[in-house]
Design a protein that fits this description.
Radius of gyration: 18 Å
Shape: globular
Number of helices: 8
Distance between the termini: 16 Å
Number of strands: 0
Length: 214
């Protein structure tokens, strides 16, 4: 039996992760602004499949691989930290762009939108860490049915993340117009995003919590 505290805990973690600017948000916003909400929704479908891939892999033994080879897990986290640091630098450097700043992107086909959404999520270090280290901490080994608990709690995370990302896709254009008329706010948003990404990169690089088996 999955406890209410576990569901609430995963919900809070999922909200914190999805509201922190990262690769998924940046890609979905860029596509929604340049190519419309439909393109953003198709990209989000790819992101959703990426979540399912991580959910299946994490519950069917990927974390055991990292437990057996902790150096591999450390390498994944450091690579993720480096990627987040690079995104933070892009936002904070002189002349950097906000995630909501209009960008020149060539229109993509529905197939490419979907595949890029999938790839962006699969390469997102935040999602890897969440599935391999955070969600397993809410599983009660003593309650049994560990695999079932893993899939249900992962499902909670997916529902929360997709709901928030869908709102972002639908509102991206409106937010971009709002910020474009207020350059000062656009700079503040860019600095906040860069600072959060940088802090997350440092935390990820210095965290030595081992992978948790599910």
């Amino acid at each position: 039996m999955i406890g209410t505290n576990a569901v609430l805990g995963v919900t809070v973690v999922a909200l914190g992760m999805v509201l922190t600017p990262g690769p998924n948000m940046m890609y979905l916003v860029a596509r929604s602004i340049t190519q419309g909400r439909r393109a953003g929704a198709i990209s989000l479908a790819g992101v959703a499949v990426g979540f399912l891939v991580y959910l299946g892999a994490a519950n069917l033994g990927l974390s055991l691989v990292f437990l057996a080879v902790p150096e591999l897990y450390l390498a994944v986290k450091l690579a993720g930290a480096a990627y987040l640091a690079w995104l933070a630098w892009k936002a904070l450097k002189p002349g950097g762009l906000s995630v909501f700043a209009p960008q020149e992107l060539a229109p993509d086909s529905a197939r490419r939108l979907f595949s890029m959404g999938l790839l962006t999520n699969l390469l997102n270090p935040k999602i890897a860490v969440m599935y391999l280290s955070l969600i397993p901490q809410f599983i009660d080994i003593g309650a049994g049915h560990v695999l079932f608990q893993g899939f249900v709690l992962g499902g909670v995370q997916i529902v929360v993340s997709l709901a928030v990302n869908l709102l972002i896709v639908l509102a991206a254009g409106t937010i971009a117009v709002f910020l474009a008329r207020r350059p000062g706010w656009l700079r503040v948003q860019r600095y906040v995003m860069g600072t959060v990404l940088g802090a997350l990169a440092v935390k990820l690089a210095t965290d030595r919590t081992p992978a948790v088996a599910t």
